[in-house]
Amino acid sequence: MGTYQLKYTMKCMLAVALITFCGPSLAEVVVRDDTGATVRLPEPARRIVTLAPHLVETLFAAGAGDKLVGTVHYSNFPEAAKTISRVGSYDRFDLESVVALKPDLIIAWLSGNVPASLDKLRALGFPVYVSQIDRIDDVPSEIERFSALAGTSEIGNAAAKRFRERFARLQQRYSKLPPVRTFYQIWKQPLMTVGGKQIISSVIRLCGGENVFEQLETLAPAVTIEAVIAANPEAIVASGMGESRPEWLDDWKRWASITAVVRENLFFIHPDLIQRHTPRLLDGAELLCQQLETARRRRPHG
């Protein structure tokens, strides 16, 4: 697994946000970011630089993709994102490249970008909006905030509404079902999972699952094989780093005492559908909900 993918997977924290969008398209825009800071623009942004791949996806969902002039490596969705100028990586972007693009708004990632680099951008006079969401149900609020910043609220509000409706349908269908104890595996060496505050844990809860490492405070903690065996998950879900099911998922078959192994509940979800804080999280959630429902059906009767 590449250093970028592993570090990118591990990032994520709590977000609380408030939107205030005043007046017509050329009016001042005032939006509170996820750190509680107020970002003011004299008018909706026209030249936006994002400093994380998942922020690009959400901006496109908000109807503001055509306002993006710069982003970082691995910003690969939607297809149009691949043509946007790169300014480096999320954890090591090039300050001069950002400045050269003359953005009127920079959208940053709290737990991914280097704070000192963001401070330099602010010192140069660039408005910096800092994003950080921690639950799947925070996604529609972010869509609304991004669309407010870009003056595309009609599109963004509609997208947020669709997200909330789809989320509510999944919640109604799955969240009250008998719980499935779930181990989510990010990677093999080191063996890594997600703690209770990581956004994937909120997806597991949406599907009526229980993260067996919910009690861990770290977002992406390392655990031992012995700890997984002791937790005895009913389902093991892995992501890996691409479209293919990771070979190491089947390594669990050597531990026949684990319920997930006995019942063949070893599942895979493409990492981009569940490890990015974007509207596509609902696609990953639907897959996970179906997988946990499979685990329920495989329970012994009687």
UniProtKB/TrEMBL annotation:
Residues 47-296 form the Fe/B12 periplasmic-binding domain. This is Periplasmic binding protein. It comes from the Bacteria. Keywords: Signal. CDD domains: BtuF. InterPro entries: ABC_Transporter_SBP, ABC_transptr_periplasmic_BD, Vit_B12_bind_prot. Pfam families: Peripla_BP_2 (PF01497). It comes from Candidatus Propionivibrio aalborgensis. GO terms for biological process: cellular response to iron ion. SUPFAM superfamilies: Helical backbone' metal receptor. Residues 1-27 form the signal peptide.
